[in-house]
């Protein structure tokens, strides 16, 4: 099979990328409890800069938006100062890097919130699953429903985080609207029972995600803003699916396309359950959006070659393979076996399982 497409450059919105291989956002939980990245992060991302595009790990837009211990933030000047060497390291190696903007909504725990407050959500419905605290994995706390007025404040937090991402030297931002977090909680009718302008119809449930994109695009220009969706995943928070996933996500994709967003990034199928592109009418979503499409979830070399050659996707985002293979692009090019990083060091700790993987 031709390997040309996967290794050829392209343009994603206003961002020139040197190949079609993206590094998927990967939470590694190695920042301080104050959300400040350590110098190791610059080594880690710099080592992976041969990716066409790095989507840096989910990064909290506010203290309230935090649901996991040791995750980084972009809501203080110290956060900006700690991210700046990361973007510099990636740029020095010729790479491109955007940051994933994150508010976890109900996927949080009182011990991670200011003054032990309840996490916030569109509606007071408790999530399943676990979140990671200083005391280990615990079930998420019961959230409280946001008031309509509070939503404007969170919008402002997104805007500020987008500004700080610019100050830190990123090439753009990815709005995290996937994996059971705040924006997906607004989008799905399984987690949004609101009766104001942010709940009910598809248009209303998509309103807040679209307002966030508009706010962030106001800082960056829409052609440097992407958005991640996971229409068919229940994995995080045991979040039930929307009752009409194609209609809901199709509407959102169309509106994002009208705004001229840089890319749509989709976790195809159930997160971590292998690729599920066939479960979703990806082409209908792409058509509704009309811009660049980044596909993710369980891609290997053969599938990535075929998906880029056939035009299924403009880029393929690899998650787990990038953890143990800093030179993943070269390994894919040469068809070298991949190293499988141990899951025990995915979250937390220091250099081990983070920056100490061999290159070929
Ligand atoms: C350790 C780890 C951390 C992750 N952190 C994030 C994250 O911060 N944001 C996100 O959208 N997805 C996150 N994911 C999901 C990945 O981006 C990706 O969707 C998933 O691993 C499937 O892709 P893969 O089969 O190539 O690994 C994470 C996955 C793993 C394994």
UniProtKB/TrEMBL annotation:
InterPro entries: Aldolase_TIM (IPR013785), OxRdtase_FMN_N (IPR001155), Oye-like (IPR045247). GO terms for molecular function: oxidoreductase activity. It is an enzyme of class 1 (oxidoreductase). Residues 6-333 form the NADH:flavin oxidoreductase/NADH oxidase N-terminal domain. Keywords: Oxidoreductase. Its EC number is 1.3.1.-. The keyword Signal does not apply. SUPFAM superfamilies: FMN-linked oxidoreductases. The keyword Oxidoreductase applies. This is N-ethylmaleimide reductase. It comes from Cupriavidus numazuensis. The lineage of its organism: Bacteria, Pseudomonadati, Pseudomonadota, Betaproteobacteria, Burkholderiales. The gene is nemA_2.
